[in-house]
C-alpha cells in the first residue's frame, strides 16, 4: 500500500470530484482536500438565495459521494503550504506527500480590487452568501413594512443586481418571482409586487457570452417580469445600501436595500500559494495559465483544473479565447486529468491536449422561461421548452451525486404553487438593531 | 377601522400563533410582533442539529401562516419598551398602541447563571443553535479523521449532552444514529461507530417528568444504542471542549469535542421589561406568575401566555405544581385567551379559569423507539408503536401550518435508508483555523 501512487486533489468542486470519480477503479491512493465538507452545486445557489431550495438540497456531503470509493480519503481543511520540489502539501502542521497533485480550488467573487464593497454587495459563490442574500432580501421587505418614511421604503423596496451574466439574470428573475408572486398578499402596509429590480451590466447587452438574439429574448423576458436592465452601466462606488452608477455618462446615485454582486469572479486564493511554490504566473483574473495538458510549466506532475485554470481554447480562428469557467468545462478537465494519470500508470501514451467540448449554454430567467444555445447542431431556442431543457440538465446533474428526487418534487411543487418553502431570515444579528438574546453569530 | 379593538401579540411561537388563529373571524385589529420571520417547530430542532431535516422543514414563515387572515398584520422586530398605563409597546422609535396585549415571548436556554458556559455548550432553542451543533458534531469528526494524537481523537469522538429531559434524550439518540449508521463507512482513519456519547443528568433518572417505568425503558433503549447515561451527575464547570462533572461525589474531568446543553430553560428576556412596566414578579426561572385567567395582577388587559407564564395547575392535591412548558400547554393558553377576548368583545361572561388539559407526554429515542404516556385513559407504552404515535403527532402539528408533505417523505426516506440529507458544516469561520476566504460570518 505504501508503494501505491499517491494523488492529492485540492478542491471538491466539479473538477476535483470528476477527477476522483474517473479514477474509481484505479489502484492508487487518493486524498481529496476541501475546506468544506460538501460538494456544492453552484449553478443553483440563486435558488437558495431566493428561498426556492434549502442549502442541503444543492449540496452533497463529499464523504457520502465517495463512501464506496475506497481508494479515496477525504480531509476537510485548508491547504496552508505547497512544496512542489519535495512534493507535499501541508494542512497546518501536517504534511501530505503526493506523487501527483491536482489543484482544483475554484474561484471566488471578484470586486475588481474594491474589497470594501464586499460588505455592501453580497456575492453568490457560497451557501453562506446565498442565505445572506435571502436574509437581506426578506429583511428589506420587513423593514419596509414597518417604516413610515417614504424614501426609506422606496430604498428598501429596490433590489440591485450587478452583473448581467447568467447568474445575474437568474437572480433578477428569481427575485421578481419571489416578490411578485410568492410574497403577494403577505404584507399589509407595502405591496411587494411594487418592488423595483434593477440589473446593471457594463456591456452593451446582458448575457454577452450568448448570441445577440438570446440576449434580446432574455431582455424581453426580464422586462415582462418588471426588471429594469441598465446596460452599459458602470458601478463606480458601493456604500451601505447605496450605489454610484455611471449610466452612459450620467452619474446616478441609486439607494437600494439589497445589492447582489454577480459581476465577476477571480481564481481562489490558493492560486497565490501555487504560484509562489512553482514560479507559475497568475493572470489578472487570478487564474493560472497552464500547458495544453493542464500541467504547470516545469511540473508535469502538478495539474491545475477547473475555474482556477486558464487554458487557451484550441480553435482555428486567430482570436485568442479561453475555456470558460463553467461546470461542464471543469468536469471535462477533471476527467481528462484522470485519463492522463491512468495512461502514465499503465505506461500508455498520453492523450492529445485537452479539448473543451462546448455542449452549449443556458440561462434561466424565471418560471418556465430560459434561453438555450447549442453549438452543434447549431440550435437556439427560448421559452418553456428551453426551461424544460434547463431543468432536465440541472436535475440530472444533481442526481449524479445522490438520489435527489426530493429536489425534483420540491421544484414541481414550487412550479405549480409558486410557493417557496425556505423563506427564513437566519443569523440576523447583523440585521436586527438590538441583537440581545439572539445567537452569537 | 380606527375604532376596532387593537390586540398586540408579542411572539409567534405556539402560544402566540394559537391565539391569533383562534381570532381569525374576530372583528379586531391584530398586530403580531416577532424577532423572527418564522414560526419554529422547536420539538424537531434536534433533527436539524443532527442533519435529518433542513431548517426550512421545521419553520413556517409567519407571513405565510397569516396571509389569508386579513385582521392580522405581522411585524418583525424587537419590542424595546412597554407602557402598561398608556398602553403601547415600542419597536425602536415606533409606538404601537393596544387595547389588549398578549406577551408570548417564550423561553431561552438557561445556564443557571454561568453565562460563560454558553460559548462551549450549545443550547437547542433556535435554528442557528441547531446548525451550530450540526457543524460542531461533524467538524469534530473531521478533525478526528485528520488528527494523529490519540488523546485528541478520543476527545473529538466524545459527545456530551447535558440534561436528561426529552430534548437531551432525543439528541443523544439522534447523535448515536448519525454516527453509528448514517456516517458508517464515511471515514478512513476513524470509525464513527466507536464514538462515545454521554448523557449527563442531575436527577436520579432521565425523563424525570415521566413515570419511572418510562425512564427505565428509555435508559435501556439508550444503552442499546451505546449511549452512556450519567445520572446524578452535576456539571460544575464548562470550558472549551472540557467538562468538570461531580459524579456522585467524585470529580471527573471529561474532555469532549462537542457539548450540547439541554439542561434548562428560562423565560425570555422580555419578561424583565414586562416586570418593570407592570411591577409583576419574576420567579427564579425567569417566568412571570400570573392569575388563573392568565392576566397580570392589576392589568386585566395584559396576558402572559406560553413558556414565559408561570401558572399554577388546578389540582386537588396539596402539592403546588405548574403548567409545564410544552407546546400543547402554550397552544391551550393561546386558545383560552382568544376565548376571553371574544367574550369581552361580545359582552358574554368570561370563561372559568384556565385549565391545562394534559394530553400526555412523549419522547423519541431513535429510529422506531419512543416512550408515550397518556394520563387518561391511563396508558404507557414504548417501542415502535410509541414511535409511530410520536411521528403522527409531530407531523400533524407540522401540516397545520403548511403542506409539509415533503417533510413526511423525507422522513420516510430517512427511515428506510438511514440517510440524513442535511449534513452541512456551515458558517465555519469559528471552526476553521484560517478563515481567510470564507464568508464574513
Topology at a glance:
2 copies of one chain form a homodimer.
Chain A lengths: L5 E5 L3 H9 L6 E6 L3 E3 L4 H5 L9 E3 H4 L6 E5 L4 E3 L4 E4 L2 E4 L2 E4 L3 E3 L17 H20 L3 H7 L1 E5 L3 H17 L13 E5 L11 H13 L2 E4 L2 E7 L2 E6 L2 E6 L2 E4 L3 E3 L2 H9 L9 E2 L5 E2 L2 E6 L4 E2 L16 H20 L14 E6 L2 E6 L4 E4 H19 L3 H13 L24
Parallel strand pairs in A: 1-2, 1-9, 2-5, 9-21, 11-12, 11-17, 12-13, 19-22
Antiparallel strand pairs in A: 3-4, 6-7, 7-8, 10-18, 14-15, 15-16, 20-21, 23-24, 24-25
Helix pairs in contact in A: 1-9, 4-5
Strand order of the largest sheet of chain A: 5-2-1-9-21-20
Instruction: Provide the CATH topology of the largest domain in chain A.
Output: FAD/NAD(P)-binding domain
Low-confidence stretches of chain A: 429-441
The count of domains of chain A is: 2
Kindly report the average pLDDT value of chain A.
90
Work out the helix count of chain A. Answer: 11
Tell me the distance between the termini of chain A: 44 Å
Q: What is the top-level CATH class of the largest domain in chain A?
A: Alpha Beta
CATH architecture call of the largest domain in chain A: 3-Layer(bba) Sandwich
Question: Could you list some keywords that capture this structure?
Answer:
globular, FAD/NAD(P)-binding domain, 4-stranded parallel sheet, 11 helices, 441 residues, 24% strand, alpha/beta, homodimer, 6-stranded mixed sheet
